[in-house]
Amino acid sequence: MSASREVAERPRRKVRRRALRRWAPRGLAALALLVAGYLSVTTLQVVRAAQRDEQVRADAIVVLGAAQYDGTPSPALRGRLDHALALYEQGLAPEIVLTGSKQPDDRFTEAFAGYRYLAQEGVSEDALRIVDDGSSTWESMAAAWRVLRAEGVGRVLLVSDRYHNRRLEGIAGELGMDVAVSSAGGSPSPGQVVGETGRVAVGQLIGYRRLFNLTG
After folding, report:
1. Which pLDDT does position 214 carry in this prediction?
2. DSSP collapsed to 3 states, 16-53
3. Which of 181, 144, 186 is nearest to 160 (CA)?
4. What's the whole-model pTM score?
5. Of 13, 26, 144, 198, which residue is most buried, by most CB within 10 angstroms?
6. Could you tell me the residue range of the domain that residue 171 belongs to?
7. Which of 106, 145, 138 has its CA nearest to residue 129?
8. Could you give the number of structural domains in the chain?
9. Is 164 inside a domain boundary?
10. Is 70 a member of any domain?
11. CATH number of the domain enclosing 88
């Protein structure tokens, strides 16, 4: 570039730098407002979904796994199992599908712990099914749906904790599942809502399968 052209460009550069300094904070503020608004809406969606309890007829009840201790369900898992048992005893579905794999040092899967618990509660073993291929909610739902879809199952009644409802519905939409959600437990804590809002916010933007691939 010639010296004369360089001299001519200097005022333009100064104008561009001044414009950048003036508009950059405004752009960042607008972005922050947009993110805050999106998270606020997502929080509301999570809270509202947690208030729904769709106790309707279905072809199968699918219980999402939670921790187990050497074959004994944790309080969280037991709450889900008791709720699934109540739905089954109402005659809302003819079978209960237990999901969830195990940690590396565990002897039993979450699905097996649920199976044994419900069998001890008097549910016929013919009405219980184990699908323990999943280590996450997405994997567990996908595995259960592969099995059920192959058998011509239509509507599924999902059982987990209340604050998971919005995410369960989103994953079901990706998988093409026809679901209703009936939740165990009481109102979620603020910490549970905050954590779930983050997962739902990202999942709704990039897809829940991609979120699982990124987070494992």
Report:
1. 84
2. HHHHHHHHHHHHHHHHHHHHHHHHHHHHHHHHHHHCCC
3. 181
4. 0.84
5. 144
6. 60-215
7. 145
8. 1
9. yes
10. yes
11. 3.40.50.620
